[in-house]
Amino acid sequence: MKPVDIGRAYDQITHLWQSDKFNLANGIEAHKRALSFVKNRGRALDIGCGCTGRFINLLQQEGFTPEGVDISAEMLRLAQLKHPKVTFHHQDICQWQPSEKYDLITAWDSIWHIPLAHQENVITNLINSLNEGGVLLFSFGGTDEPGEHTDSFMGPEVYYSTLGTNGFLSLLIKLGAVCKHLEYDQYPELHTYLIVQKG
């Protein structure tokens, strides 16, 4: 599946995030941990921002000027309604080159939808889009080896990929980023997140 296909799939399931059953606390503690490593509170970027606005809210409360990017037009339409003064970008993160540098970039439950062949380039681009001392937080499938699969758990078929824990760590070390925190936060599920800082 291409990222544009993921965007169309997410256009169909925005109701899952608008439901009263959605846990708006999901990912917040991880973001607070990431914030503890940030040196400056300037621009921030939420990749795969979706429609809840919960990370945008947190970043604003913490003194950042946040922006959002998503491949789903409907997610962005809903996000803009909640935060009309925030800049949102309708972009494929595999192709998009941000024009700004950021003190914090978050990609919570989003980059695992990009093609496996693009994972390394996207992570490299994100590290390069950080200011010195900037922090990247992202979640991924914490498998031992790289892999990819599709499933229809949320309704439409959706694609997932991962470099695996060691794959991401090896790449980040090569890029000169320092691992500040690694957590399997939903164990025994393979949901994992990394907080890294640009040297």
Description of the molecule:
By secondary structure, the chain is an alpha/beta fold. The chain has one domain (3-17, 27-198): Rossmann fold (3-Layer(aba) Sandwich). It is built from seven helices and nine strands; from the N terminus they run H-H-H-E-H-E-H-E-E-H-E-E-E-H-E-E. The strands form two sheets. Strands 3-2-1-4-5-9-8 form a seven-stranded mixed beta sheet, with helices on both faces. The protein has a two-stranded antiparallel sheet with strand order 6-7. The chain is globular, with a radius of gyration of 16 Å. The mean pLDDT is 96.
Supply the key terms:
single chain, 199 residues, alpha/beta, seven-stranded mixed sheet, 9 strands, globular
N-to-C CA distance: 34 Å
Low-confidence stretches: none
The H/E string reads: HHHEHEHEEHEEEHEE
Strand content: 25-35%
CATH topology: Rossmann fold
Count all strands and give the number. 9
Helix content: 25-40%
Task: Please give the count of helices.
Answer: 7
Largest sheet: 7 strands, mixed
By CATH's scheme, which homologous superfamily applies? Vaccinia Virus protein VP39
Please tell me the total number of domains. Answer: 1
Mean pLDDT: 96
Radius of gyration from CA coordinates: 16 Å
Any idea of the CATH class?
Alpha Beta
- Structural class given helices, strands, pairing? alpha/beta
- The strand order across the widest sheet is 3-2-1-4-5-9-8
Secondary-structure arrangement, i.e. CATH architecture: 3-Layer(aba) Sandwich
Shape type: globular
